[in-house]
Amino acid sequence: MFRHQKELQFEVKVDKPDPMLAKQVQEVLGGQFGEMTVMMQYLFQGFNCRGNEKYKDMLMDIGTEEIGHVEMLCSLISQLLDGASPEDQAEAAKDPATAAIMGGINPQHLLVSGLGGLPTNSQGVPWNGNYIVASGNLLADMRSNLHAESQGRLQVARLYHMTKDEGVRKVFRKMLARDRYHQYQWMEAINELEEKNGVVVPSSFPPEAEKEAQEEAYKFWDLSEGTASKEGPWSQGTSPDGTGKYVHVENPQPQGQAPNPNVPDPALHHDLTEEKVLSK
Q1: Contact 148/33 with Cβ under 8 angstroms?
Q2: Which terminal residue of the chain, N or C, has fewer Cβ atoms less than 10 Å from its own Cβ?
Q3: How far apart are CA 233 and CA 274, in angstroms?
């Protein structure tokens, strides 16, 4: 059961309208790494979580918080769009310089949402359910969550420097702080799961089950020009799980055969046969 509280988590109050910034803010609302994505990702991971209640509870806590962040951004976008109208755009178009600036406004904010936030990114591409990860494997999901929060915080930080509006920046600072905490949170969960089950996903398929292929788990295949990658910790030393030592393969050679597939039936019209085939 969900309940809605009318007050926002943090104050949203812009200094002045800015329709162009509203378009840019759409990215952290409905983009691949926006608040809609993390909201749906954490909630679906929580809905489907089986077993350990503390992980389910945490996912539902943070997923529900992200619902509030979606509402905060919709409020922010609405305030940035205050006063925009089709007449304003038509009037602005009479002046070439102003028209060039106004040309950056998202027309869907006028035509579709009536000066409100949209479930789209900054280019108007609709939010996509394929953005989310909810695999049923806790460690895999927590790593995906850390990635999502890292990318989302990066985008908010970039937006922060695209405006001088102190009201907007105040909202962004709160979001940056919360995204920083969420990164801490996923790191803590990842560390706990790694200590319990190991660092490789899935832990239920151990290295020894790889049999003759196990040695391939420690080789770095150097497949680009230069050898600078040899200096990285991924090319020397011991694997994080302590099961083997890395080997740098400077001139790797193929170990498989060249494919030689059978030619399919001529009825597929592939034009691969040497003799002329007439249709029956």
Answers
A1: yes
A2: N
A3: 53
Q: Is the peptide bond before 266 cis (omega within 30 degrees of 0)?
A: no
Nearest CA among 31, 208, 237 for reference residue 200: 208
**How is residue 37 written in tokens?**
């994505």
Query: Can you tell me which residue has the tokens 């007449």?
Result: 87
Q: How far is CA 118 from its chain centroid?
A: 18
Q: What tokens appear for 221 in the block?
A: 């295949």
Q: Looking at 62-66, 91-95, 169-173, 254-258, which range is the least confident one?
A: 91-95
User: 220 in helix, strand or coil?
Assistant: strand
Identify the three-state secondary structure at position 251. coil
pLDDT-based confidence at residue 57 (cuts at 50, 70, 90): very high
Amino acid at the residue 221: W
Cite the beta strand spans of 78-232 per DSSP E: 219-221
- Given a contact cutoff of 8 angstroms between Cβ atoms, the answer to whether 159 and 24 are in contact is yes
The radius of gyration computed from the CA coordinates of the chain, to the nearest angstrom, equals 26
Amino acid of residue 101: I
What backbone torsions phi and psi does residue 22 show, to the nearest 5 degrees?
A: -60, -40
Give pLDDT tens digits for 91-101: 555 655 555 54
What tokens were used for 256? 């498989």
Largest CA distance in the chain: 76
Total residues belonging to the chain: 280
| End-to-end Cα, the chain, rounded Å | 64
Q: Determine the 3-state secondary structure of 1 from DSSP.
A: coil
**Pairing outcome for strands 219-221 and 247-249:** parallel
Separation of alpha carbons 171 and 89, rounded Å? 28
The contacts of residue 96 (CB under 8 Å, 6+ apart) are none
User: What is d(CA 203, CA 7) in angstroms, rounded to the nearest whole number?
Assistant: 43
Look up residue 221 and give its DSSP letter.
E
